[in-house]
Design a protein that fits this description.
Layout (H helix, E strand, L loop, with lengths): L1 H22 L5 E9 L6 E6 L18 E3 L3 E2 L15 E2 L5 E10 L4 E10 L1 E6 L2 E7 L8 E4 L8 E10 L6 E13 L5 E4 L6 E2 L4 E9 L13 E8 L5 E2 L14 E3 L4 E7 L6 E9 L8 E6 L1
Parallel strand pairs: 4-5, 14-21
Antiparallel strand pairs: 1-12, 2-3, 2-6, 4-12, 6-11, 7-10, 7-12, 8-9, 8-11, 13-15, 15-19, 16-17, 16-20, 18-19, 20-21
């Protein structure tokens, strides 16, 4: 049973490495602005209260389970501003009251320059993850009075909480915002690892495993050359959580660098399996000092 599980773990690991090679990691990146919360979006919770009531509603862990669900914009359909109509108002907010709204949204790791902007009649206090990032005043159809950039230190990879207190001191009301952020999307790595050996073949513990590979492009064409430095960066034990330093056999690979072989048109690393436990191992490497999740190959020890 143990061997069967190890076999499947290796199959899945090989499949994952193939996907990583196609999808790539963050070797290069380009910046783009994304929308986390759109105008007139649903998924809010809200509560209409008297002025100043509801202190602490902005806290990340605040229990809003008893609040009503709603969709922006919040407001009245009567009024002199262009947004006071049945098209832009989806949830009623009576005049001369406060409205408390909360909404969660997701951010990827590395998101930055988050901007909350939109319209309010009359005033709005805007919070992100429990911290106030701005206070806006308006009252006579002024547009984009909500326009605040959150400190990058407030952003969380995963779920974030937007909370706003809207204040109105007349008859017409309105509140709606949009949230955007900048993010450098990862591009495919410069190279794809093309192993020149059977990654599913088991090697006897203590033996030397000649790890042979080429650096290819996405179509499989060989890009290897002696001018490119491939360095063995570390080992990961896939049947567990242990990791180990890479040990070569003898002095064939000084400084843990792969040796470029002209005849092979690729790279060779004579890896010692001494002190390695039985199971599936992943050899991670860098290319010209650059690491990437797809820069790895597998071998098996029994």
């Amino acid at each position: 049973m143990t061997r069967v599980l190890s076999r499947w773990s290796r199959v899945w690991a090989l499949a994952l490495l193939g996907l990583l090679a196609l999808a790539g990691g963050a070797v290069q990146a380009h910046g783009t602005t994304f929308t986390a919360v759109s105008y007139m979006e649903g998924g809010y919770t809200y509560q209409v209260v008297d002025h100043g009531v509801g202190a602490g509603f902005e806290a990340v862990g605040y229990d809003d389970s008893a609040w009503l669900p709603g969709a922006a914009g919040f407001g009245t359909t009567s009024g002199v501003c262009w947004w006071n109509n049945t098209t832009n108002v989806q949830t009623e907010w009576p005049g001369n009251t406060d409205i408390l709204v909360r909404k969660t949204f997701e951010l990827p790791a590395g998101a930055h320059n988050l901007l909350v902007f939109g319209n309010i009649d009359n005033n709005a206090t805007v919070y992100l993850n429990g911290v106030q990032i701005g206070y806006a005043t308006s009252g006579y159809c002024y547009e984009n009075r909500i326009n605040f950039t959150a400190p990058d230190s407030l952003l969380v990879a995963g779920t974030n909480v937007l909370a706003i207190r809207g204040e109105d001191y007349g008859a017409p009301t309105f509140l709606d915002v949009q949230v955007t952020y900048d993010y450098e999307e990862p591009l495919a790595p410069s190279y794809v690892a093309c192993p020149l050996y059977d990654q599913t073949k088991a090697h006897k513990a203590g033996a030397t495993v000649p790890i042979k590979l080429q650096l290819c492009d996405a179509s499989g064409s060989n890009l290897s050359s002696g001018a490119i430095v491939v360095n063995a960066a570390g080992l990961t034990y896939l049947d567990g959580t242990a990791s180990a330093l890479v040990e070569d056999s003898g002095n064939a690979n000084p400084d843990a660098d792969f040796r470029y072989d002209e005849e092979l048109g690729g790279y060779v690393f004579n890896l010692s399996t001494a002190d390695l436990s039985s199971g599936t191992w992943q050899l991670n490497f860098t290319v010209d000092g650059v690491a990437d999740p797809s820069y790895s190959v597998l071998f098996d020890v029994r």
